[in-house]
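User: For a benchmark we're assembling, each entry needs the component sequences followed by a predicted structure for the full assembly. Here are entry 17's components. Please fill in the structure.
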Amino acid sequence: MERILSRWVDIPDLRRIEVYEAHGGYQAWRKVLTEMTPAALIDEVKAANLRGRGGAAFPTGTKWGFIPRDSQKPVYVCCNADESEPGTFGNRYQLENDPHGVIEGLLICCRAVNAHVGYIYLRGEFALQKRRVDEALAQARARGYVGRNVLGANFDVEIYTHRGAGAYICGEETALLESLEGKRGYPRNRPPFPAIHGAFGCPTVVNNVETLSNLPHIIARGAQWYRGIGPAASPGPKLFCLSGHLNRPGLYELPMGFPLKNMIYDEHLGGGILNGKKLKAVIPGGSSFPVFTADEALKVNMDFDSVRAAGSLMGTGGVIVMHEDTCMVDALRTIANFYHHESCGQCTPCREGCGWIEKLLIDLEAGRGEAADLDKLIDIADNMEGNTICVLADSLAMPVRSFVRKFKEEFVEHVRRRRCPYRFERGYAGAAPRDAPPFPPTEAGAAS
Ligand SMILES: Cc1cc2nc3c(=O)[nH]c(=O)nc-3n(C[C@H](O)[C@H](O)[C@H](O)COP(=O)(O)O)c2cc1C
Ligand code: SF4
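Assistant: Structure for entry 17:
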């Protein structure tokens, strides 16, 4: 397949503006300024059926349509470059290697919703990426693509970059806006939604890096071309992040709807399971979503609707592969540790629930768990989901329920044998849990 989003693999130095321009760069921006009305632009993106790549798969054109056209307040656009979902690393490469593609997409979005200011909010660790984007912005400004009266089209637009302090929660769009305003990154209650009350109380669009990177291509080559890539309801190229027990983990651009089985086993893609082991499980969209067993994973096509129909969500396209030696109790404990650490603490079900789940899993992994803990895990997850300000709580509840239900035998085995069978009998090298008990277990633990 032709590389579209990741064409920087084939074009050295695409981040330099003269190279970017030589490959059609900023032609789409020129086109939307000189040949299209904002309404026609939104219609084109709706016709392309572009859906957000930041995790929720919301249709991009529809989101833009929520911005009031007659707003008396300024309108803002924020590019969400906070990328912190475990197993997800595509935005990072886009920003590093094709910063102009992201900037051009952001400019196109600004024109669509009549915003004269755009922000790029980068996660705290993205020092190199911010430098690359700042360099590209300076080049774009010098060429007259950003600034006053852009390309003589009587449209002013400025773009600013902003680096957060490295909190996962600041990727949640309302926490991002709080952080951008200089406050603590706490998610906001909704409604009102950002389209009405976003940055600085003004109408705001928040779009992901990869979502925006699609726009120059859609405008340059048309919605019909775009819809021809992958399934019509969920089309386009997608950057899949393959990680875990694979021979060739990495970032791969593939059409939406690509079979997960081929992604894992194709010799030019994942290259099969490490050390010839058997596949055990896959989380298809970053750590926040239900896990697939091997049988489920081998049947699913990777697009938003197919993954949903199979019982999980495609989220960011971060595919985490686990082989037969993985201890599923310990894998879930690692996930719980992350959400417990990243919970902002505003909502009791999330703040207490994430910690409680992690504690139960530490105990189960250490051989101190009880049979009743399995129901308790499900019960806590059920009480977290849907009861909080943002969906971080759901992001742990979903993996918990699926891990416990689909790999129940393994959890039971930990209780029955009062130890982790993987860690001691199969050379499993999972990370040592925080607050880890002494390993190997005490005499009393091992004997009972
Ligand atoms: C806890 C949490 C973290 C999130 N992190 C990110 C992120 O790092 N990047 C991102 O684009 N979206 C993230 N999102 C989703 C955003 O809230 C929002 O849906 C997205 O930026 C919208 O862009 P899109 O429509 O282009 O996908 C996160 C959501 C939650 C609940
Ligand atoms: S669900 Fe968790 S992360 Fe989200 S607002 Fe509530 S406490 Fe904070």
